[in-house]
Amino acid sequence: MASQTLYDKLWNRHLVAELPDGSALLYVDRHLLHEVTSPQAFSGLRAAGRKPWRIGPNVAVPDHAVPTRRRELGVAGIADRVARVQVETLTRNCHEFGIPLIELEDARQGIVHVVGPEQGLTLPGMTIVCGDSHTATHGAFATLAMGIGTSEVEHVLASQTLRTQRQKNMRVVFDGAMGFGVTPKDLILALIGRIGTAGGTGYAIEYAGEAIRTMSMEGRMTICNMSIEAGARAGMIAYDAITEAYVRGRPHAPEGTEYANACRYWQSLRSDEDAVFDREEYFPVSALVPQVTWGTSPEMVVGIDGCVPDSAGPDAAAQNSMKRTLDYMGLEPGQALKGLPIDKVFIGSCTNARIEDLRAVANLVKGRKISRSVAQALIVPGSGQIRLQAEREGLDTIFQKAGFEWRAAGCSMCLGMNDDRLQPGERCASTSNRNFEGRQGKGGQTHLMSPLMAAAAALTGKLTDVREL
Amino acid sequence: MEPFTAHAGLVIPFNRANVDTDAILPKQYLKMLGKTGYGDFLFDDERYLDPGDVDIPVGDRRPDPDFILNQPPFDRGTVLLAGANFGCGSSREHAVWALHDYGVRVVLAPSFGDIFFNNCFNNGLLPVILAQSVIDRLFELASQPGEVSLTVDLERCEIVQGENVWSFVVEPGRRDNLLSGLDDIGRTMALGETILEYEAQRRSVEPWMFR
Ligand code: SF4
């Protein structure tokens, strides 16, 4: 058999049928649901008198619109009436259709892409879909994980399959070791800066190279998470001992001999030595500096020692969009990023709210205080389990002593569907994944960066090179 | 879903690259439970001068006169002409529902966000990928005084504007969806036996996937 990439292997294993129109029917092993993109899918099922094909692969959790305070009140504590109805609707739909639900009050609740791996719902070799573009996160476990729309959520519920088109293969090799103060977030931001937000469109990206091989699962998830910001629906990383160590003993992982059998199969979840990729990007990382975005697209990114570009080149359309971006961000061409005063700090999201991120932040801010000029600094753990773990380690005390607010798990200010939002003109150092206009609140100015860099900005009140602290 | 065979309409030139689905429909409207009622909130952040939310009547809000959807004749437009990577970002199908509910039936762009592109075909909205040179030409036409209308014919896969005719390519399955107005689920359910056979075979090699 010809050499195959990891993507090819996952694709072939899940292929139910090639369809006459050139698309394919892929089997879905895990379907994650949340309150925002599922209600219309359940309504559709109901209207057609359909039932879920299988129950077991589905798990739902409310995360997008939930408040991060007063959670002891449960659903009743959601002050926004419309959001409360949406969370109640998820509960009602799950009960009606028998879908397993992790409720808001449950200690396992959290951002869907954090909960999946944590609970062992994400297992190597799976196909995983969710009505959410950051489903690519799960690719860190050698899975084929893709975001889908609500119509497709309904399709998956009804048939356990997805109609989709085969992607091309891209390999990104992050070679070398990351320097001091440089994190997986910096790698993926720099890659997006290089290939652009449409650079990965039509591709499934496999991340490889020394930096990936030595990286923790948390870091790998950060990288795969932002594949969609590079335009790719799926990002993935080969299975290895680090994957195995993370999965072992998780609540939904297989046990005993079945686990041993699974591990044996999972060993094969890597691209063959001589597999051919349609596109390869070689990215040495040892000289990379911490990254920070300056604009309203994740590709508008430079090293912290860099400046806003001087010009957008000769193209009129590019100049227009550059002007629009700088007006929105309140920046000048050529302006240095370092030293730019910030108003708020957000450490959270499915990109960077795992225990390792919180430990790194705690390490840096321990015994220090955030700047008086910072109006609010939020730390929102990715899940209830992470919140508990951080509290067991005393991280919450470190955060609160430094002046951070310690919140309950959810998407929070990553998209501002709850009341954690930027006000117009507020500038934010954020560990999330999107700096789109209005993403964190209408008129809010977002700078994306790593948790270390966001913590450094909190301490000094301005964009800061964490390596100089 | 209503079938889509051909559409004639006025062009809305929206010359910006990387228009994301957050811009097309901001987050506060994702709390709604239906597939309709989003049209008034299309491009909400840019379209109104004051902030909006689900329970703020749009009649009480001030439209931004500088925004293209508030300017005649474009306020009657139904064919959106856009820059590269239109619909990137979030998977929210709400962005497609908002465009459709507003009345947009066709989006022309050099490239699209992947998930958005997919979502369009499940909702009777036709996204057409055209060469940058054709897109440039259309923007040039649209920048001249007066209005530009064109016809998008899905049966012939052609765009007709005055004397100009451009052809385009759509994957056959997706084209069928739009032409027939049928969604995928029914057609997939007809393959139920195949899915069951697949499951039986998979279960024998990866039983842990079926616990
Ligand atoms: S944390 Fe942000 S990016 Fe992640 S699922 Fe929630 S809203 Fe989406």
TrEMBL record, chain A:
Keywords, comma-separated and alphabetical: 4Fe-4S, Amino-acid biosynthesis, Branched-chain amino acid biosynthesis, Iron, Iron-sulfur, Leucine biosynthesis, Lyase, Metal-binding
Subunit structure: Heterodimer of LeuC and LeuD.
Pfam short name (any one): Aconitase
Residues passing through the membrane, by range: none
Family per record: Belongs to the aconitase/IPM isomerase family. LeuC type 1 subfamily.
InterPro entries: 3-IsopropMal_deHydase_lsu, Acnase/IPM_dHydase_lsu_aba_1/3, Acoase/IPM_deHydtase_lsu_aba, Aconitase_4Fe-4S_BS, Aconitase_4Fe-4S_dom, IPM_dehydratase_rel_enz, IPMI_cat
Role of this protein: Catalyzes the isomerization between 2-isopropylmalate and 3-isopropylmalate, via the formation of 2-isopropylmaleate.
Note describing how the cofactor binds: Binds 1 [4Fe-4S] cluster per subunit.
UniProt protein name: 3-isopropylmalate dehydratase large subunit
Species of origin: Marinobacter antarcticus
Names of the cofactor(s): [4Fe-4S] cluster
TrEMBL record, chain B:
KW Transcription (keyword) present: no
Keywords: Amino-acid biosynthesis, Branched-chain amino acid biosynthesis, Leucine biosynthesis, Lyase
A Pfam family this chain is assigned to: Aconitase_C
Annotated function: Catalyzes the isomerization between 2-isopropylmalate and 3-isopropylmalate, via the formation of 2-isopropylmaleate.
UniProt xrefs under PANTHER family: 3-ISOPROPYLMALATE DEHYDRATASE SMALL SUBUNIT, 3-ISOPROPYLMALATE DEHYDRATASE SMALL SUBUNIT 2-RELATED-RELATED
Family in the record: Belongs to the LeuD family. LeuD type 1 subfamily.
Molecular functions (GO terms): 3-isopropylmalate dehydratase activity
UniProt KW Nucleotidyltransferase keyword: no
Pathway assignment: Amino-acid biosynthesis; L-leucine biosynthesis; L-leucine from 3-methyl-2-oxobutanoate: step 2/4
SUPFAM superfamilies: LeuD/IlvD-like (SSF52016)
Single Gene Ontology BP annotation: L-leucine biosynthetic process
Substrates-to-products reaction catalysed: (2R,3S)-3-isopropylmalate = (2S)-2-isopropylmalate
Record protein name field: 3-isopropylmalate dehydratase
Domain Aconitase A/isopropylmalate dehydratase small subunit swivel: 1-132
GO cellular component: 3-isopropylmalate dehydratase complex
Organism: marine sediment metagenome
InterPro entries assigned to the protein according to its UniProt record, in alphabetical order: 3-IsopropMal_deHydase_ssu (IPR004431), Aconitase/3IPM_dehydase_swvl (IPR015928), AconitaseA/IPMdHydase_ssu_swvl (IPR000573), IPMI_Swivel (IPR033940), LeuD (IPR050075)
Protein EC: 4.2.1.33
Subunit structure: Heterodimer of LeuC and LeuD.
